Amino acid sequence: MADITRDVLIVGAGAAGTTAANELRKAGLSVVVLEARDRVGGRLWTDVIDGAMLEIGGQWVSPDQDALIETIDELGLETFSRYREGDSVYVGPDGALHRFTGEMFPVSAETEKVIAEITERLDAMVAEIDPDRPYAHPKAAEWDSVTWDAWLREQSDDDEAVRNLAFATGSAMLTKPTHAFSLLQSLLMAASAGSYSNLVDADFILDKRVVGGLQQVPQLLAERLGDDVLLNQPVRTLEWGEHGVTATTDALTVRARYAILAHAPVLYDRISFVPSLPRRQHQMHQHLSMGFVIKVHAVYDRPFWREQGLSGTAFSPYELVHEAYDNTNHADERGTLVGFVSDQNADDVFELSAEERKERILESLSHYYGPEAKNPVVYYESDWGTEEWTRGAYAASFDMGGLHRYGKDLRASVGPIHFACSDLAGAGYQHVDGAIRMGRLAAAQILDADRS
Ligand code: FAD
């Protein structure tokens, strides 16, 4: 078995791990990145499927994501705006299609008023939340003990208003049923994007994409590390103590003074720690779980919806595909739609055969864009639930009560072991921006420890 010695071992070559490794390298430390998969990027994965370039994982960049924007600029990558000219569409409770412009759904004046009032209330609450310390809010325990659904239902009995407010952090972000996470977890999600209003503004949150794909970020960062990124090396055991760490994969032994676990927290228990991690980590890690969403791509010979004056932006809390967008690639003649099927809807369609699932999903898209949507030339469902080294999408969050109970220890290092991942972030939480921030933070913690 080959033996490698470095200052720092990084487990995972996603955005967090490749960022941390570059930061440490710049500061003069030697690093090695061990990646379980046969590719770099983790939840960033740009691939060509049946001749169409698709973003199977993360893709959008919003204007508040400074760390990601800085990295994109520094790597010399170009961005382009999501197509958004024309009307958006909304399917209401009676199944009727409505066209609209702006951020507010075309609901009745009464429902619109309820949505506006609760949004204002939420913005005020979110403004009090420090995304790096949501557990420190004086009402953290109270807000972490009520589900997002129950809190919204206490505010109003207008079902359409509640469903529309709920899905912004539910189906669309944490991708868990709204009864499965707390009000505090929902406020953190909104605080990480600056406000609840930012989060529901598709033009803000889904603003830009990278020409050629977002996976280039970790790929270019990994290129700078050259031979210090090793693929197909799942870390199986990690011995740790005052001396540092010794990790083993099926083919390698790596000794280092520090380690960074730069992957989703649900995967910590795939590693055998010797000695085992402390009680607090054992307990905390059991209260974090991945959300679940299917990202569906449908490519057509042309963006036919634009001919009808549609932007491609579509929402409905009553539809199987609860949101969909024009996802046409830069300078591509073909038109691409991307839609999302989340949480229990995703569970349900995975009970069907692949053919039936495709039919149901395309049927839902046709409710927004008309019958032409049923005949794409390329169709692809990304299913991160089957990926051994991710196990869901988009990211991990705490179950009820977990955020205020364990939040303060989420990023705390354990001896020489540090943690970095988008799922541990404040600003940029569950996004690539957060992964980069956490990569930088873990590197800074190690550099501090090394100086003292
Ligand atoms: P990961 O990308 O998960 O990287 C962790 C790496 O560690 C993986 O490569 C994994 O293989 C490896 N690993 C795990 N265990 C081991 C082990 N034991 N040994 C060795 N290696 C190991 N974010 C946005 O900003 N915008 C979006 O539009 C967006 N859309 C998304 C759509 C989808 C479908 C998904 C899945 C995610 C999306 N995200 C989006 C979220 C974003 O992709 C992630 O938050 C981010 O990429 C996570 O980066 P990371 O480095 O923290 O973790």
Automatic annotation (TrEMBL):
> According to its UniProt record, which cofactors does this protein need?
FAD
Q: Which InterPro entries match?
A: Amino_oxidase, FAD/NAD-bd_sf, Flavin_amine_oxidase, Flavin_MAO
Q: Where is FAD annotated to bind?
A: 35-36, 235
Entry keywords, A to Z: Oxidoreductase
Listed GO molecular functions? putrescine oxidase activity
EC class name: oxidoreductase
* Start and end residues of each Amine oxidase domain: 16-447
The Enzyme Commission number assigned here is 1.4.3.10
Residues at which substrate binds: 340
- Family of this protein: Belongs to the flavin monoamine oxidase family.
Q: Which PANTHER family match?
A: AMINE OXIDASE, AMINE OXIDASE [FLAVIN-CONTAINING] B
Protein known as: Putrescine oxidase
Species of provenance = Microbacterium azadirachtae
